Amino acid sequence: MFVLQLLFIIMLLIRFLIISISILYMLRMLGRLLLPALFRGMVNKAQAQQGNPMQDRTERRPKEGTVKIDFIPPDANKSAIPDSEGEFVKYEEIK
Prior knowledge:
Layout: H1 2-50, H2 53-60
């Protein structure tokens, strides 16, 4: 009786291993078929979002003869210290 139970358990274990290995093999084969298509779609989507870099450069270039000012320096006559702070007085240190 004990030998039959042991054989039954071993048969179940072998059956489980065969089924598990076959499922993993099938998933591997499906991955080989589906993953390239998935990555191809992702690459196409990224390229579409990126656009054509040469076209973007020509669109951003201003017309010839126009001037674009990005930075206007602060007024040289204005002081960095507000008038409410008072005046700076030069002094010499006496030892």
